[in-house]
Amino acid sequence: MFEEALRTTIEISLGVAAVILLLLVTKPLLDKRYAAKWRYWVWLILALRLIFPFRLPLMQTPLSLPVPEQEIVYQVDENQIPEIPMPTVPRENDGQTVSQSATAPQIENDEIQTEKSQKAGVRTISIAALAAAVWCGGVVLFLIWNIAVYLSFRGQIRRRGKMVTALPSLLILRKIRSELKIKRKIRLMIFSGLDSPVMTGMISPVILLPDMAFTEEELSMILRHELVHWKRRDIWYKFVLLLANAVHWFNPLVWVMARQADQDIEISCDDAVLAGKNELFRQQYGQALLHVLRTGVTRRNTIFSTRFSASRKTLKRRFSNLLKASRKRSGKIALCVVLAAAIFAGSLVACQQTDSASKQPDLAASSFGPPASTAINRPGEKIDPSEYSSLSRTYLFPFASLSDSIWSNPDEIQIGFGFTIHGR
């Protein structure tokens, strides 16, 4: 089951990786032509495609990759091999001897013990099974690590975070929540371990402010930015990226996609905050970004969280986007093209296993059965005792599978077990 899942995952991963590579190569051109919201939806489509590995049936797959069939032989301590218990033969209540069929399990067990003693200490595992085990282990470790970092971060918030009690700050938060029509209660806290505002929590959201002074305009811009993140469900968006990265942890292009998507989440959020705003509002928003940039940029990046400021490179892109956002296109047609490419991408690669069994001759048929060109008499068909070929085809081949056959001459056929059939 896991081998088949890994095979399908590799097929989808390679197909989507080609689309990701094409987007990264054309990124300078696409950034100038389309708004960040277009890239925001593109990465989400690709992430969902990576999580749901369905394939469309095609007449012929453009690229076929062979699945390794080799096996790895390894040693096992013979003392760790458990002994097979001997079955208890039931006896009749009247003291009579048991039937001969009751000893069959004992004979079979003796054969198993003999075979075990001959092959003790030697085990084999296929390369495909080993790769599936490594892949599953990587997925589990990736998720455990990210969840552990998030839980540690939440624990620090509970220990070191302080609830904001200043009435002006709470009024600003309530006003922006009302404007954005957000009914969910969102807490506001001060956390000294941050250099930039952060929003975290999928179920119990909280906005964390660094321990520094903000003007009312700056605080308004920061809170609006984080609340827009919540309204757009960007924390769930990042959770989808996390799952895609976990399943395809072996693909470096998926890691690059997750990083680019994280930057475009912030840039598209800026566009959503500035939509329909005047030039003065844009200046105030840019000043808030500059204020955070002067105090430092946050390096904390955990799951289930968004942040007002990230790396300096991302901030540079955001400043550039503030001046050019109104000149860019939405890119609906290009988005449909990417959607179609993502759907068909998983069907472009196929991992096929070589059918080695079909290349080997049918030893059982050649050793114990009649030749392919020889017709076998059907049941109910009359057979002349003088026709030795018909007689042997119908009655002697089943015995040949149980013992070595010795075909002496047409008048005398010895089939083993001490029986001899005489002719005329």
Helix content: 40-55%
Strand coverage percent:
5-15%
Class per helix and strand makeup: alpha+beta
Give the helix tally.
Answer: 15
Going across the major beta sheet, what is the strand order? 4-5-7-6-8
Low-confidence stretches: 95-102, 356-378, 403-408, 413-419
Q: Give the termini separation.
A: 60 Å
CA-atom Rg in angstroms: 36 Å
The backbone outline, from C-alpha atoms, is: globular
How many strands, what sense, and barrel or not for the largest sheet? 5 strands, mixed
What descriptors fit this protein?
424 residues, alpha+beta, five-stranded mixed beta sheet, three-stranded antiparallel beta sheet, 12 strands, 54% helix, 12% strand, globular
Would you give an account of this structure?
- The chain is an alpha+beta fold and 424 residues long.
- The strands form 4 sheets. It has a 5-stranded mixed sheet, sandwiched between helices.
- A hairpin with a 2-residue loop joins strand 11 and strand 12.
- Helix 9 packs across helix 11.
- It is globular, with a radius of gyration of 36 Å.
